[in-house]
């Protein structure tokens, strides 16, 4: 993959893993471009998780691992959304990885 992302005429640097090199470059338009690059079409359900993850990171200054991510979503939104099946439907492959990537956050712990 290209180590840069073009959004509205601005070139944004990405890490080797495809995450934003600078979290300050993030906005919702950038999120849409990152999602499209990962072949994810963002819906309201995606945005709910992405916004919550940004809130979580701002509050705790760290990213959850996969297990903590599911538990945090469960605590915030209930059992229906706070489970691996639901999150993997939204973010196939690795829910926490793709949610963090789209949210413009660093690569989460334990992600390859």
Short description:
The protein is mainly alpha-helical and about 110 residues long.
Topology:
Layout: E1 4-7, E2 10-13, H1 28-37, H2 44-60, H3 66-77, H4 84-90, H5 95-102
Antiparallel strand pairs: 1-2
What does this structure look like?
The protein is built from 5 helices and 2 strands. It is globular. It has helices at residues 28-37, 44-60, 66-77, 84-90, 95-102, and strands at 4-7, 10-13. The protein has 112 residues and is mostly helical.
List the main descriptive attributes of the protein structure presented here.
112 residues, 5 helices, mainly alpha, globular
**Main β-sheet description:** 2 strands, antiparallel
Tally of helical runs: 5
Q: Can you tell me the residue ranges where pLDDT is under 50 for at least 5 consecutive residues?
A: none
Global Rg: 13 Å
Strand content: 5-15%
Report mean pLDDT, rounded to a whole number: 93
Fraction of residues in H or I helices = 40-55%
Taken from the alpha-carbon principal axes, the silhouette is globular
Structure summary, number of beta strands: 2
Tell me the structural class.
mainly alpha
How far from one another are the termini?
16 Å
- Strand arrangement in the largest pleated sheet: 1-2
- Written as H for each helix and E for each strand, in order along the chain, the element string is EEHHHHH
């Amino acid at each position: 993959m290209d180590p840069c992302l073009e959004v509205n005429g601005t070139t944004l640097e990405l890490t080797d893993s495809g995450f934003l090199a600078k979290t300050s470059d993030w906005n919702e338009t950038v999120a849409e471009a990152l999602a499209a690059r990962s072949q994810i079409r963002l819906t309201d359900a995606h945005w709910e998780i992405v916004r919550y993850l940004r809130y979580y990171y701002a509050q705790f200054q760290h990213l959850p691992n996969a297990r903590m991510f599911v538990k945090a979503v469960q605590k915030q939104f209930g059992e229906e959304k706070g489970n691996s099946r639901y999150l993997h439907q939204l973010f196939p492959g690795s829910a926490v990885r793709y949610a963090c990537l789209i949210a413009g956050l660093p690569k989460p712990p334990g992600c390859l």
